Amino acid sequence: MVEAIIIKNGYVVDPEVSKIQKRDIGMLNGKFIDPTIIESYGADISYIDANGSYVAPGFIDIHTHVFKDYTTLGIEADKVGINQGVTTIIDAGSAGLDNYATFKQKVINTSKTEVLAFLNISTKGLCNEGGELANPNDLMASEEARSIFRTEPSLVGLKARMSGSVVGNNGLYPLLHARKLADDLHVPIMVHIGNPPPLIEEILPMLRKGDIVTHAFHGKPKNKIITPHQELTSEAINCLNRGVLFDVGHGAASFSFKTLSIYKEKYNYPFSISSDLHVRNYESPVGSLMQTMSKVRGLGYSLLEVVAAVTMEPAKTLHLTEQGTFASGTRADVTLFYETDVCMELKDSEGEPMIVEKVIEPYLTIREGKKVYESNVGTKSQRN
Ligand SMILES: [Zn+2]
After folding, report:
1. Is position 129 within any domain?
2. Residue 381 lies in a domain
3. Quick one: pLDDT at residue 166?
4. Residue 322 lies in a domain
5. S-S: 24 plus which of 35, 194, 257, 274, CB 3.0-4.6 Å?
6. Would you say residue 378 has pLDDT above 70?
7. Has keyword Metal-binding (predicted)?
8. Do 50 and 128 have their domain in common?
């Protein structure tokens, strides 16, 4: 039997047409299709009444750590994936060449959430805790990289954590190496910025179009994208003009309301929102991707902008053609959510509180045209 779903009465948030409007969304055999022609396929149609809620392309979280049981940070993928309205999760360098087969077997193949990955340029990934780039002998070789990227479609790019506690005495060397690998493979690098060395002034000029700077809006005393005059550094502006994507990567220590507010006040470059969720920040301060979106929303970004930051923007940068879109014929991943009126205090990684008046709450997740998660969280809520 041909399986079809039509979502009716919802407010469809579609960043690709920059609109929120009431319309139906159709799905047939796991793909999006114009709902007005579904009947002509003789399909058995089930209907979802999304009255009072929002309907968006499935959310993508491009920075998480889900290599559970093999890294101390790893959290269960579905817990922060489909159960929180996230249909695609990208693990940011938990696995490296040596343990990717295990990651694939234990996480990718067993999760209902789509799991993709940035491969750590350290062959060990985060399986020996941190400091993975302190020994140059652990860097993945070009031939090794070529071979694994040829055979693993779940790999979207490389991960290089460029901060003092990770690179030890190697300074920029691991990033030079990552640059060489990325140019050879034609894949992006996700670079984590944090405490120096190396300096952000040295890191940013090495990034090209399509690369991603995660933890971009951190509030640490050094290595910020914002100058003491509350403007973007010239290196940051040049980077953004070249098409590098800045990413939130909330985490326990890497998202400052103040930094993002300054950015918002003066600049209009698109960015992505990710959580950096793992077991040590899940309870606090991160919670979920949607809670991170609620914080960004609390700083004054529109609903359309925060949804674009977890759908269209990351999909475009990573050349994901099946995700982050409602385009006809692409994979039908959908996130249904409420925006609930509240008066709630949420904190950034600096412990800075903000009172938010709305929170985004998932209640139904669809993957490949099938319901994979439904909660009762939103049933009492109403869109206002
Ligand atoms: Zn991380």
Report:
1. yes
2. no
3. 94
4. no
5. 35
6. no
7. yes
8. no
Q: What is the pLDDT of residue 51?
A: 96
Residue bearing tokens 């060397």? 173
How many Å lie between the centroid of ligand 1 and the Cα of residue 40?
47
Ligand-binding annotation for 159, yes or no, is yes
**Which residues make beta-bridge pairs with 339?**
360
Domains in the chain: how many in total? 2
Q: How far apart are CA 226 and CA 190, in angstroms?
A: 20
Q: Is 276 within any annotated ligand binding site?
A: yes
CATH number, domain containing residue 346: 2.30.40.10
Ligand 1 centre distance from Cα of residue 126 (Å)? 10
Q: Say whether both 289 and 279 belong to one domain.
A: yes
CA 251 – ligand 1 centroid, Å: 7
Residue 382, domain member (yes or no): no
Tell me the C-alpha distance between 145 and 180, whole Å. 11
What confidence tier does 1 reach under pLDDT thresholds 50, 70, 90? low
Looking at the structure, do residues 167 and 281 belong to the same domain, yes or no? Answer: yes
The domain boundary, picked from 294, 317, 340, lies at 317
User: 297: CA distance to ligand 1 center in Å?
Assistant: 22
44 marked as binding residue: no
Q: How far apart are CA 6 and CA 148, in angstroms?
A: 39
CATH number at residue 225: 3.20.20.140
SS3 201: helix
| 78 annotated to bind ligand | no
Tell which wins on pLDDT, 138 or 1.
138
Query: What is the average pLDDT score of the chain?
Result: 95
Residues 116 and 95: beta-carbon distance below 8 Å: no
Ligand 1 centroid, distance to 19 Cα (angstroms): 32
Neighbours of 187 (CB within 10 A): 20
